[in-house]
């Protein structure tokens, strides 16, 4: 689906060591004030995100809201590798990113980063791609059966037919190679979801529907497919079909999609523009280079307008690097890094100032006579004491019966009456407590009692955990399980630490190749003080096929190693895509994973080729002179991958005609079969001791049938039955005169 909506805002978790810096950096966000007049009865609450980072069932934790920072990454071909350097600089300076919007190469970099790859991970992945081979959609020969390899490739020209009319290709590549490359790498990502809001960082890919001419913002679906659509440059790659649309490169309609980020209600938009300059005359030769030049001209003015809309614009000095300069990836990354460093201070300042229209937290609440903590345990208070803004100057009276602080405790009695307390003071104190990870919720209440203004912090702590139980999974390392159990058993739950450990747990499972398995629920069992972590087992509950109007389902399913009820394994899914594509029946093959209620649905999407094929060829030799042939082929007879061909050849000294049926696999077995009937005439010359004798003619009429057992894709054992009539004699006609 394609959606336009406001994404949920997810705040990054911070460790206790950087709590104060977090407070100062994001101090103006995260406050809800109620009943502000009179201030003698005031409730103050922290403003939180709408969704939890994991499915906590009866444990509460919502990250705090902060200014929403959107990062917009432009297109530009290889020049866009500078985006990696920008991300590297942001990582080093802890610049938060809450939304990434990408076009073309920007969608590749942004999509990978949103899925959990670091800047360095992306750099390594980009360098590992052979960019010179991504246009080659030919099936690798090791993926073919021996019977496929033995099919003769004797033609010079081949074209597919729509009825009797040739089909003209719309692009150099159908995009299968680049999709497969992206898919295989994204299977190793830390976040696996079809809802781009649920990635580590919410993500939007911008593409263009070439049917309507409209810009399309992809917010869900298969991430590799969305990226593929965003970068499908016309003439180089075929459009990607999604939900009835034919999607091509997003740079056609919006090469720097700042407006998309603003539509998603970003408070700060940082745009990185790596747009290519117009080509020099000597660089406009191939059709796709002409298309690129035309697109650049069309987008010149809209891109300039988008630059003006950005709050921060980063334009790396990329000089003469061209859109195809992938071999200079390290240099491009470094240029992006250096460009980003010059804007770090500006970005930090804008984040601090971004809430200028919000409530003034520096307003005074008044003089506080007494401060109370309710629900905060002795251990938690002692742990946070040095970080709290309101703490006792002397010995703190502690409860002895329930390990809670007294209902009423007065702090700083010598100075409190002389120093007014502001909203910011109260909120900063609340943030310190909340971001410690030991509490589920905290509120502050200002009230009057006997002409004394009382500030009460009402705290609801996380539960104490006796033991941790994690569902078993074959890919879950014991070391990960032990770490979680040792870190949380026998202690009060620290939710931030748990979130990090859950991320490690999921990453460990994904690393083993089980990308469909995930944490499905975290429950606290109060009767036994047990923390139970449930895992979705990641089994394939159903398999569906879309796009096979002619091809039978069994032809596709027999090539897929994954079956209903199997654990979804990345390696098997990737091999299945390669196997299905290797049949030669499809222009594109991909897998989408969908959720229906609690069921895991694996959808195999295919785009069928035109199955009527015409082939032409010719041959010349000094001995036999010229020979030409034509072949008509039904590539998928009855939708069973059976091929039917009619072959005819005529030359100076030969004539051939053959009708052949052959199939690579019979039904779901590895049996292969072939049957043909043929007629041939051949006139040969006869020499002895360099003397030429009269020519003779061989006429063959016959029938062949063979059947074989294929040993996977490694070999074949076969037998052949042949019935043939051979006539040998003087030629009745002179071929060369016919």
What does this protein look like?
The chain is an alpha+beta fold and 738 residues long. The protein folds into five domains: 16-65 and 357-461, no CATH class; 70-137 and 174-353, Cytosolic phospholipase A2 catalytic domain, CATH 3.40.1090; 464-536, Ubiquitin-like (UB roll) (Roll), CATH 3.10.20.310; 542-608, Roll (Ubiquitin-like (UB roll)); 612-737. Helices cover 24% and strands 32% of the residues. It has 17 helices and 34 strands. The strands form eight sheets. Strands 6-5-28-29-30-31-32-33-34 form a nine-stranded antiparallel sheet, with no helix packed on it. A hairpin with a 5-residue loop joins strand 8 (203-209) and strand 9. Helix 3 (105-114) packs antiparallel against helix 7 (223-230). The longest helix has 23 residues, at 287-309. The chain is elongated and about 130 Å long. Residues 1-30, 32-38 and 392-418 have low confidence and may be disordered.
What brief labels describe this structure?
738 residues, alpha+beta, disordered N terminus, nine-stranded antiparallel β-sheet, 17 helices, Cytosolic phospholipase A2 catalytic domain
Count up the domains: 5
Question: What is the arithmetic mean of pLDDT?
Answer: 83
Strand content: 25-35%
Q: Mind telling me the CATH class of the largest domain?
A: Alpha Beta
Label the CATH architecture of the largest domain.
3-Layer(aba) Sandwich
CATH superfamily of the largest domain: Cytosolic phospholipase A2 catalytic domain
- Number of E strands: 34
Strands in their spatial order, largest beta sheet: 6-5-28-29-30-31-32-33-34
Q: Radius of gyration over alpha carbons?
A: 34 Å
N-C termini distance: 63 Å
Profile the largest sheet.
9 strands, antiparallel
Low-confidence stretches: 1-30, 32-38, 392-418
Shape: elongated
The helix tally amounts to 17
Category from helices, strands and their pairing = alpha+beta
Under CATH, the topology of the largest domain can be stated as Cytosolic phospholipase A2 catalytic domain
Helix content: 10-25%
């Amino acid at each position: 689906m394609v959606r336009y909506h406001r994404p949920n805002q997810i705040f990054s978790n911070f460790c206790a060591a950087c709590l104060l810096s977090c407070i100062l950096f994001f101090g103006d966000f995260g406050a809800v004030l109620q009943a502000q007049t009179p201030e003698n009865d005031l409730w103050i609450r922290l403003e939180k995100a709408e969704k939890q980072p994991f499915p906590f069932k009866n444990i509460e934790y919502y990250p705090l809201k902060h200014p929403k920072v959107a990062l917009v990454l432009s297109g530009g071909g290889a020049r866009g590798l500078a985006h990696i350097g920008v991300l590297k600089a942001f990582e080093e300076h802890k610049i938060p990113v809450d939304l990434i919007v990408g076009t073309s190469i920007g969608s590749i970099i942004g999509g990978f980063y949103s899925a959990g790859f670091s800047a360095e991970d992306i750099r390594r992945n980009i360098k590992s791609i052979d960019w010179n081979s991504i246009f080659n959609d030919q099936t690798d020969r090791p993926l073919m059966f021996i019977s496929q390899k033995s099919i003769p490739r004797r033609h010079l020209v081949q074209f597919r037919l729509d009825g009797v009319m040739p089909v003209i290709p719309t692009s150099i590549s159908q995009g299968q190679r680049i999709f497969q490359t992206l898919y295989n790498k994204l299977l190793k990502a830390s976040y696996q979801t079809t809802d781009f809001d649920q990635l580590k960082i919410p993500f939007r890919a911008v593409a263009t529907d070439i049917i309507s001419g409209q810009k399309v913002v992809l917010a869900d679906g298969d991430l590799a497919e969305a990226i593929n659509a965003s970068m499908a440059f016309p003439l180089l790659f075929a459009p990607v079909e999604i939900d009835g649309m034919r999607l091509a490169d997003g740079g056609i309609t919006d090469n720097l999609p700042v407006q998309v980020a603003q539509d998603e209600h970003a408070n700060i938009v940082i745009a990185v523009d790596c747009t290519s300059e117009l080509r020099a005359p000597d660089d406009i030769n191939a059709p796709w280079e002409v298309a690129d030049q035309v697109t650049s001209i069309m987008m010149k003015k809209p891109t300039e307008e988008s630059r003006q809309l950005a709050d921060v614009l980063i334009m790396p000095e990329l000089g003469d690097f061209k859109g195809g300069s992938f071999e200079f990836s390290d240099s491009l990354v470094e240029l992006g890094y250096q460009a980003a460093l010059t804007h770090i201070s500006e970005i930090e300042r804008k984040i601090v100032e971004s809430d200028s229209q919000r409530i003034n937290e520096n307003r005074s609440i008044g003089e506080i006579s007494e401060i109370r903590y309710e629900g905060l345990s002795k251990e938690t208070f002692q742990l946070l004491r040095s970080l709290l803004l309101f703490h006792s100057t002397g010995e703190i009276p502690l409860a002895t019966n329930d390990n809670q602080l007294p209902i009423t405790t007065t702090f700083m009695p010598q100075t409190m009456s002389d120093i007014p307390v502001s909203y910011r003071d109260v909120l900063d104190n609340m943030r310190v407590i909340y971001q410690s990870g030991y509490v589920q919720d905290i509120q502050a209440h200002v009230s009057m009692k006997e002409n004394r203004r009382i500030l009460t912090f009402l705290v609801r702590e996380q539960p104490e955990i006796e033991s941790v139980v994690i569902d078993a999974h074959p890919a879950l390392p014991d070391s990960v399980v032990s770490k979680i159990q040792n870190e949380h058993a026998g202690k009060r739950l620290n939710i931030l630490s748990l979130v990090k450990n859950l991320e490690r747990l999921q990453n460990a499972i994904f690393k083993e190749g089980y990308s469909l398995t995930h944490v499905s629920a975290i429950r606290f069992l109060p009767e036994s003080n047990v923390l139970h972590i449930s895992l979705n087992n990641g089994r394939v509950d159903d398999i569906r096929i879309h796009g096979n109007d002619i091809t039978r389902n069994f032809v596709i399913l027999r090539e897929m190693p994954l079956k209903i009820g199997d654990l979804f394994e990345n390696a098997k899914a990737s091999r299945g895509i390669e196997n299905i594509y290797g049949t030669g029946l499809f222009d594109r093959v991909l897998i989408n994973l969908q959720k229906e209620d609690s069921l895991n649905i694996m959808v195999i999407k295919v785009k069928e080729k035109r199955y009527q094929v015409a082939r032409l060829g010719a041959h010349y030799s000094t001995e036999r002179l010229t020979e030409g042939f034509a072949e008509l082929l039904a590539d998928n007879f009855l939708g069973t991958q059976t091929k039917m061909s009619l072959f005819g050849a005529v030359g100076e000294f030969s004539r051939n005609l053959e009708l052949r049926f052959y199939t690579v696999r019979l039904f779901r077995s590895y049996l292969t079969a072939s049957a043909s009937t043929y007629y041939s005439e051949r006139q040969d010359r006869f020499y002895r001791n360099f003397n030429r004798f009269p020519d003779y003619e061989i006429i063959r009429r016959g029938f062949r049938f063979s059947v074989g057992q294929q040993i996977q894709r490694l070999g074949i054992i076969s037998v052949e039955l042949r019935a043939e009539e051979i006539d040998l004699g003087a030629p009745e006609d002179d071929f060369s005169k016919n």
